[in-house]
Amino acid sequence: MSVPLLEVRNLECFYGPVMALRGVSLDVPEGKTVAVLGGNGAGKTTLLRTVSGIMDPEKGEVLLSGVPIAGIEPDRIVRSGLVHVPEGREVFPLLSVEENLEMGAYTRRDGGVSEDAAAVFDYFPVLRERLRQPAGTLSGGEQQMLAIARALMARPRIMLLDEPSLGLSPVMVRDIFAIIRRLKEERGVTMLLVEQNATMALDVADFGYVLENGQIALDGPAERLKRNADIREFYLGARTVSPRGDRRWKRRKTWRS
Ligand SMILES: Nc1ncnc2c1ncn2[C@@H]1O[C@H](COP(=O)(O)OP(=O)(O)O)[C@@H](O)[C@H]1O
Ligand SMILES: [Mg+2]
After folding, report:
1. 152 lies in some domain
2. Which residue is closest in CA terms to ligand 1's atom 24?
3. For the segment 128-151, what is each residue's pLDDT rounded down to a tens digit?
4. How many Å lie between the centroid of ligand 1 and the Cα of residue 121?
């Protein structure tokens, strides 16, 4: 059997004394979409930042096609085919849409960049209309599209998406997820998607993990997680919300039963 494209083994991460990841392991097979679900502060962003080399883990391994990449410079990780669309859709606000897309292709040495731009506009036609516009003047949803489009310009083997639905209107969330689904189905893009929006994420994902307090609390095929009572309760609205607005998984004692 071939190794998964991405393997995360027992990652432990700290911010000073705060332990943000407590031994996280997961696999992302080639061509699949894997969702990591979890509320605020669960460790989702820390996981993606560690996988893409922005943060160094205290312990554990990240393997891309079986090759360890933890601790390697982020730009070398991009060159090896892994791109990260960060939380909060960090586009370059003063650069035009076109210049942002060119930045995404900076690791490319081949001549296929203009063809890829054409393919990207097929998925994101609105970006073609806004080509000369500074990215900072786009709407939130358009900026999210640009962030994903820019990542695609690197022709990645695997794309990490950090909460693409965050702060977007329900209509825009549907549009973004429709594009994510097309990228998966038409182009076979492998994805590791972290989300609080379990409904959308499990709809597109093949497999899911639930992250809570820096640990995997539950995992399984997306179809099975969708039927899981705890997850249904979480995403159908019957969840507890703390005074700080944090979502908490309600019946966590039942996770492992
Ligand atoms: N820069 C930071 N400094 C200190 N603690 C942090 C920092 N970033 C995140 N944390 C803490 O690490 C934990 C995980 O955060 P994060 O990975 O951002 O979670 P999520 O993306 O799931 O909301 C939280 O307890 C958070 O407060
Ligand atoms: Mg986050």
Report:
1. no
2. 41
3. 999 999 999 999 999 999 999 999
4. 34
